[in-house]
């Protein structure tokens, strides 16, 4: 149980375009979803926390207008990288939290490459 | 505020040797502690977690970790390294009741045949 999926697993786009990444909890309803960014050979940096039906809470230094997060249901959160630039190239990982569990369940990640 | 320090960004061990990955934490409240493993271009897999029960925690793939409050440590060990253990390992901390997790900088484990 507690499986989280991400789609797509890998995406290549041109500079200036927008890219949407989906995060789904497959067998449970996630009370909270998290979005992380991982730079090469670096740790995970929390970008934002989102709760279903409310606005996401962004970490300091993360541009909310650039990284749009929508958490429309208890099983789906999306991250849209708007007007992507090469410096946005990274590995994006989502996770989902479940009420009563002090543990996050991680998705497999999405590799974004902006040309 | 919480933080995690992983000593050694790279650790090399011979196949069959003891694996020891170090993690020290800082937390103003009793912490929950985690070890995750990440293989290249993949997400994180939970190895084990400490949530204020037994201080010696056993996880998957033969790994275990011991919570030592006096040393603020949560080191990860495995008696005998296997080639398949080569990966990146992350120690993480969260406070009970809040799901925000803070990760360490990671330790890359290399297993030498």
Topology:
The complex is a heterodimer of chains A (115) and B (113).
Chain A: E1 4-7, E2 10-13, E3 19-25, E4 32-38, E5 44-51, E6 57-58, E7 67-73, E8 76-81, E9 90-97, E10 104-106, E11 110-114
Parallel strand pairs in A: 2-11
Antiparallel strand pairs in A: 1-3, 3-8, 4-5, 4-9, 5-6, 7-8, 9-10, 9-11
Chain B: E1 3-7, E2 10-14, E3 19-26, E4 32-38, E5 44-50, E6 56-58, E7 64-68, E8 73-78, E9 87-94, E10 102-103, E11 107-112
Parallel strand pairs in B: 2-11
Antiparallel strand pairs in B: 1-3, 3-8, 4-5, 4-9, 6-7, 7-8, 9-10, 9-11
Describe the structure.
The complex is a heterodimer of chains A (115) and B (113). Chain A is mainly beta. In chain A, 0% of the residues lie in helices and 53% in strands. In chain A, strands 2, 4, 5, 6, 9, 10 and 11 form a 7-stranded mixed sheet that branches. A 4-stranded antiparallel sheet of chain A has the order 1-3-8-7, with no helix packed on it. In chain A, strand 5 and strand 6 form a beta hairpin. Chain A starts with a strand and ends with a strand. The model of chain A has no long low-confidence stretch (mean pLDDT 91). Chain B has 113 residues and is an all-beta fold. Chain B contains no helices and 11 strands. In chain B, the strands form 2 sheets. In chain B, strands 2, 4, 5, 9, 10 and 11 form a 6-stranded mixed sheet that branches. A 5-stranded antiparallel sheet of chain B has the order 1-3-8-7-6, with no helix packed on it. In chain B, strand 9 and strand 10 form a beta hairpin. Chain B is globular, with a radius of gyration of 13 Å. At the A-B interface, strand 5 and strand 9 of A face strand 4, strand 5 and strand 10 of B.
């Amino acid at each position: 149980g507690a499986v989280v999926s991400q789609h797509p697993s890998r995406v290549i786009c041109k500079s200036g375009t927008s890219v949407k990444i989906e995060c789904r909890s497959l067998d449970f309803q996630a009370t909270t979803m998290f979005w992380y960014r991982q730079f090469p050979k670096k740790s995970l940096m929390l970008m934002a926390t989102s709760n279903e039906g409310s606005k996401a809470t962004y970490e300091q230094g993360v541009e909310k207008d650039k990284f749009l997060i929508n958490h429309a249901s208890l099983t789906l959160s999306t991250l849209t990288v708007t007007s992507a630039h090469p410096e946005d190239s990274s590995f994006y990982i989502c996770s989902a939290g479940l009420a009563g569990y002090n543990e996050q369940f991680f998705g497999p990640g999405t590799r974004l490459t902006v040309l | 505020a919480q933080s995690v320090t992983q000593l050694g960004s790279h650790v090399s061990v011979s196949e069959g040797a003891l694996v020891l990955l170090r993690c020290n934490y800082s937390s103003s409240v009793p912490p929950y502690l985690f070890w995750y493993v990440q293989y290249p271009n993949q997400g994180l897999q939970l190895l084990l977690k400490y949530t204020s029960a037994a201080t010696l925690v056993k996880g998957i793939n033969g790994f275990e970790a011991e919570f030592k409050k006096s040393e603020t440590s949560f080191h990860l060990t495995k008696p005998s390294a296997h080639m398949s253990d080569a990966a990146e390992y992350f120690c993480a901390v969260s406070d009970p009741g809040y799901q925000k997790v803070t990760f360490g900088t990671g330790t890359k484990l290399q297993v030498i045949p």
